[in-house]
Amino acid sequence: MNYKDYYQVLGIPKGAPEKDIKSAYRRLARKWHPDVNPNNHAEAEEKFKEIQEAYEVLGDAEKRRKYDALGSDWQNAAAQAEAQRRYRQQAGAGSHFDNFDFSTSGSGFSDFFEEFFGRMGGGGRRRAGGFTYAQKGQDLETSIELTLHEAYDGGKKTVSLQVEDVCPKCAGTGTVERGRLCANCHGTGRTIAVRKFEVSIPRGVKDGQRIRLAGQGGAGSGGGANGDLYLVVHLLEDPHFERTGDNLAVELPVSIYDLVLGGEVRVPTMTGEVTMTLPAGTQNGARLRLGGKGMPKRDGKFGDEFVRVVGKLPTDLSKRELELFKELAALRDGKH
Ligand SMILES: [Zn+2]
């Protein structure tokens, strides 16, 4: 893709006054209009488009100023704009370079125009050659952190997100009177604001799952619908439970007497403690299942909770306890 020298296209010097641009455009457009060139229609059409494209930029004082400012450094600027656009999109905000406010043609114009002005324009807004076309706003994506309990409960949650709004001071142009940069937005045309969103968290939502907020993304143009906002769920680690799919795992310290003799132990679950019966002779490290105590599933059922029992040995044995342990050991030896 090559740099388009729009001045060359219109055959005028770089510093040409506005009226010269206009007259050059009119003269060339008349000359190359496809209707008056029936014998070389294809060539005329090509030329005609090129002229229109040049005038689209140079015929608008604001666009021309920006085109001139970027000059031969356009490739750098375009790459930077694209990188920023991606970054902003990830960060959940609109295009920084909306303030460039170049019209996009939708079709017909050169790769240079599309790449440079189209994309930098943050997705085409409105007209080329005077007609309006609707375009859906940008889809935005950002992440939200949820605790395991929030994921379990689901329901409404209010999240605050930083979003970019059109700068009210300069109406998004980035410039104020006499072309000076807008101080309010530092010429970006955008201001950062915190907006609150009410989000419906699906019960049992998983790490990495995307929640769609329809119509909460970038503003549409020309009557087009707004984009959507996607929230990517990031589940925070829970101090007690480890999640695998819809199942949960928990480690439960128990006394060696509970393991040997069996007994009732209290186990934490997502809905509070429950009593679980250990059978006599439960092995250290055994895994027991609490059916339906896991995470909610899409079908309305629940996963399971797996309890790993860890026997805790007493360390502060009294003299009497030691005697009894010795006696037990001797008994055990006698049995073998
Ligand atoms: Zn501003």
List keywords for this structure.
Helix Hairpins, HSP40/DNAj peptide-binding domain, 11 strands, 24% strand, 336 residues, rod-shaped
Spell out the helices and strands N to C: HHHHHHEHEEEEEEHEEEEH
Structure class: alpha+beta
Any idea how many domains?
Answer: 3
* Rounded Rg: 34 Å
Main beta-sheet annotation: 4 strands, mixed
CATH architecture of the largest domain: Orthogonal Bundle
Instruction: Indicate the CATH class of the largest domain.
Output: Mainly Alpha
Instruction: Assign an overall shape.
Output: rod-shaped
Number of helices: 9
The stretches of 5 or more residues where confidence is low (pLDDT under 50) are: 92-107, 119-132
Percent range for β-strand residues = 15-25%
* CATH superfamily (homologous) name of the largest domain: DnaJ domain
CATH topology of the largest domain: Helix Hairpins
Widest β-sheet, arrangement of strands: 6-7-11-10
What does this structure look like?
The structure is a single chain. The chain is of the alpha+beta class and 336 residues long. The protein folds into three domains: 6-120, Orthogonal Bundle (Helix Hairpins), CATH 1.10.287; 140-235, HSP40/DNAj peptide-binding domain, CATH 2.60.260; 242-335, HSP40/DNAj peptide-binding domain (Sandwich), CATH 2.60.260.20. Helices cover 31% and strands 24% of the residues. It is built from nine helices and eleven strands. The protein has helices spanning 6-10, 18-32, 41-58, 61-70, 74-91, 111-120, 148-153, 256-261, 319-335; strands at 140-146, 155-166, 190-201, 210-213, 229-235, 242-244, 247-255, 263-269, 272-278, 287-290, 305-312. The strands form four sheets. A four-stranded mixed β-sheet has the order 6-7-11-10. Strand 6 and strand 7 (247-255) form a beta hairpin. Helix 2 runs antiparallel to helix 3 (41-58) and helix 5 (74-91) packs across helix 6 (111-120). The longest helix is centred in the N-terminal third of the chain and has 18 residues, at 41-58. The protein starts with 5 loop residues before the first helix and ends with a helix. Residues 92-107 and 119-132 have low confidence and may be disordered. Bound molecules: zinc ion (ZN). Zinc ion binds at residues 167, 169-170, 174, 182, 184-185, 189. Zinc ion (ZN) is lined by residues 167, 169-170, 174, 182, 184-185, 189.
